[in-house]
Amino acid sequence: MGVAIEDAIKQFQSLMEQVDEPLKNTFKNIHQGYPIETLVRFLKARDRNVAKAHKMLIDCLQWRIQNEIDHTLAKPIIPIDLYRAVRDSQLVGLSGYSKEGLPVIAIGVGLSTFDKASGHYYVQSHIQMNEYRDCVILPSATKKHGRHIDTCLKVLDMTGLKLSALNQIKLLSAISTIDDSNYPEKTETYYIVNVPYVFSACWKVVKPLLQERTRRKIQVLQGCGSNELLKIMDYGSLPHFCRKEGSGSSRHYGNGNADDCFSLDHAFHQQLYNYIKQQALLMEPNPLTKQDSVHVDVPEPSLDDAKIAKTIETEFHKFENQNGLKVTSD
């Protein structure tokens, strides 16, 4: 496991003091006033190995500079119809907060199609939500609760999961690799709900391939998961697909789109989009009318991640070949 955490932090700090000014500047945007806690995240991601954690952080900082990640929240996806198309096919949103103040991120894994825009827009949108979480949501939660909050909870809805998901495995792997390489240890727990049979079977094969640190974070819940989730969050923070057994990721659950945290009409996405537009105007006061997608370099996936992706693909094809099974949840 490497040296004691206190010694590891000191060694890590010493190494970071030697980096050049551009790297130090983008590091400030990452740590948001909590440099030690940020070093600890990278140390955890590399099992407290200082050399590996240092390389990981330096690679991350260089990636941020090369891809202008510090300015990504000033690069809106426009026109609004294009952004709405992204939101309708990349189902992600903030449903609320846990009782401990952690943001609850809802993800519609099964019904996300990623088929209404170029893949670059989906990557850009994902990074923007990461940056907004880290630069706005988490600092606000920290201030409100009077203690440092730098992680979130994620609730993954598997409703509608089917074999066509394999068509997007390359894009999903790219997004996962970006998170693993540049936003390590930002999720405290993954709750998986509305699980179809194909996921349950695939999970048995994939689970042993995951690192123990990752396995401990994943909880597969019964049904829509509301019974367990209500132990850690209030009803108002439950994602809409967890509020009723069998409701799934309905786009019209409850009161129109008011409760659908995936919708662009939801308060979170309105705040996010308006924030990005305001940041864009601060950088460039001229009205924005058109913008090409932002191309971001995707780090190479680790051998372990590549093996997991290949295993998922293989397992899905097994189901495809078994009597023409249609892989969806109820």
Query: What is the assigned CATH homologous superfamily of the largest domain?
Result: CRAL-TRIO lipid binding domain
- Spatial order of the strands forming the largest sheet: 1-2-3-4-5
Percent of residues in helices: 40-55%
Q: How many angstroms separate the termini? A: 44 Å
Q: Return the CATH architecture of the largest domain.
A: 3-Layer(aba) Sandwich
Count of separate structural domains = 2
Number of helices: 12
Number of strands: 5
Average residue-wise pLDDT: 87
Largest sheet: 5 strands, mixed
Oligomer: single chain
Query: SSE order, as H and E?
Result: HHHHHEEHEHEHHEHHH
**At the first level of CATH, what is the class of the largest domain?**
Alpha Beta
Portion in strands: 5-15%
- Rg (CA only): 20 Å
Quickly give the structural class.
alpha/beta
CATH topology of the largest domain: Phosphatidylinositol Transfer Protein Sec14p
Unreliable stretches (pLDDT < 50, length at least 5) are 246-256, 325-330
Bulk shape: globular
Pfam families: CRAL_TRIO, CRAL_TRIO_N
Protein name: CRAL-TRIO domain-containing protein
Description of the structure:
This is CRAL-TRIO domain-containing protein. InterPro entries: CRAL-TRIO_dom, CRAL-TRIO_dom_sf, CRAL/TRIO_N_dom, CRAL/TRIO_N_dom_sf. Pfam families: CRAL_TRIO, CRAL_TRIO_N. The structure is a single chain. This protein is α/β, with parallel strands linked by helices and 330 residues long. It has two domains: 5-66, Helicase, Ruva Protein, domain 3; 73-280, CRAL-TRIO lipid binding domain (Phosphatidylinositol Transfer Protein Sec14p), CATH 3.40.525.10. The protein contains twelve helices and five strands. A five-stranded mixed sheet has the order 1-2-3-4-5. The longest helix is centred in the middle third of the chain and has 27 residues, at 119-145.
